[in-house]
Write a structure and sequence with these properties.
This protein is α+β, with helices and mostly antiparallel strands. Helix content is 43%, strand content 15%. It contains nine helices and ten strands. Helix 1 packs across helix 8, helix 3 packs antiparallel against helix 4 and helix 3 packs antiparallel against helix 5.
Length: 393
């Protein structure tokens, strides 16, 4: 199973529930808007999350062009196979030449409809802002009906046009793939930095493998982890710290300070610094694990990934962390929708009615034997009723 195929069940479930391609695409982009940083623009050098202006749009267009080229190539292949079948049939030479010419005209018309070929005018193919001009020279004799004396000349002309068309498609596809690679490279600029520094990449893997620094980092006196909504900080304390009164925790909107008593009795500051982003200080809590650490939970003001806990510490690469969020973090409506989709997919797999079918069946069963029903007295048989994904029969 390929990477694309393994998501087919989920996509089919969404498409079946929505019933229309436009609604399906709306769900897809709604997810990107609500749950990711896809539509966030990097407007200044201090922004850490998002894409440079226009890059997100180019990513979508590159993906569209990629599969449009594949579809066009499949169409050309089918036309070529059909042409070969016609040529292999036992027919007079005149008829074979006429069939070949017709198939070439059809292919040229298809290419013209997507602005890839069909005229001597140069075709501009955009590649991430740059324009690559390519001209397709077609012989005007290709559009004339061939005669017996011109059959061979016309066949050669159309073959040359077909070869140039194929070359143009190949060129456009390469340019599209390059554009996609450039967009991805621009969007993942932070990844390149870590890839160039194997030590940072190695440390990030260690952080991800430790639950106390998952999506965060381990520092000299503390470690921190995060989800999209909160941050968990564990500040190390000496083994003699056994009671909460021996610890002082000060949490500000954008500041954190943790102190504890030394054996000699004086106060020692363990952590004291400004937070990278703001937190709801009234919603933050802390607790002491005796002899080990102080656990501080910070609730984020914004749902975004932090690249550092304190402003004076080294930053992590937020593109290397796990951006997924547990289902329990979603609102009730989203959870119910996901559960319904999973249920429908399971029911479909075992050949049983899905949720929308069960609703219709329950409604019909009440009316089946009601007064005035033409089915009164007959047993209700749901197998005789075909219910669409929209609940229509």
């Amino acid at each position: 199973m390929s990477m694309q195929d393994k998501y087919d069940c989920a996509f089919l479930g969404i498409l079946q529930n929505e019933g229309e391609i436009s609604k399906f695409m709306d769900c897809l982009f709604s997810f990107l808007y609500r749950k990711t940083d896809f539509f966030v623009s990097l407007n200044s050098s201090t922004d850490q999350v998002g894409f440079p202006p226009g890059v997100a749009e180019k990513i979508v267009l590159s993906a569209f062009k990629k599969y449009e080229s594949l579809a066009l190539r499949n169409l050309k292949r089918k036309l070529a196979e059909k042409s070969k079948l016609c040529q292999s049939a036992v027919k007079p030479e005149d008829e074979v030449t006429e069939i070949d010419h017709t198939e070439e005209v059809i292919a040229d018309k298809v290419m013209a409809s997507v602005d890839v070929a069909g005229s001597e005018t140069p075709v501009a193919v955009k590649d991430n802002g740059a324009e690559i001009e390519t001209s397709l020279q077609t012989d005007t004799s290709c559009t004339k009906s061939p005669t017996r004396s011109e059959g061979q000349e016309t066949s050669e002309s159309t073959a040359a046009a077909k070869e140039q068309t194929s070359q143009l498609i190949s060129t456009e596809r390469k340019n599209t793939d390059k554009g996609s690679d450039k967009s991805k490279s621009s969007a993942d600029a932070g990844d390149d930095d870590d890839d160039c520094d194997p030590e940072l990449a190695r440390l990030q893997k260690i952080f991800q493998a430790n639950p106390e620094s998952y999506n965060g980092a381990i520092r000299d006196t503390y470690s921190w982890s995060q989800s999209i909504t909160d941050v968990d900080v564990r500040v190390k304390v000496p083994k003699h710290i056994m009671k909460g009164k021996d610890v002082t925790v000060e949490i500000g909107r954008k500041h954190l300070k943790v102190s504890c008593k030394a054996v000699e009795g004086h106060v020692v500051t363990v952590v004291d610094g400004d937070l990278t982003w703001e937190c709801h200080k009234d919603e933050c809590v802390w607790s002491l694990v005796p002899g080990e650490h102080v656990h501080v939970n910070l609730e984020k003001v914004e749902e975004r990934w932090w690249d550092a806990l304190l402003t004076d510490e080294s930053k992590i690469n937020v593109r290397k962390i796990d951006p997924s969020r547990p289902m329990t973090d979603l609102d009730d409506e989203a959870q119910a929708k996901i559960e319904e989709m999973m249920y429908n997919e399971h029911q479909k797999r075992i050949g049983r009615p899905q949720s929308h079918e069960n609703k219709v069946h329950a409604m019909l069963e009440k009316a089946w034997d009601a007064e005035g029903s033409p089915f009164k007295g007959q047993p209700f048989d749901p197998s005789k009723i075909n219910v669409s994904s929209g609940g229509m029969m």
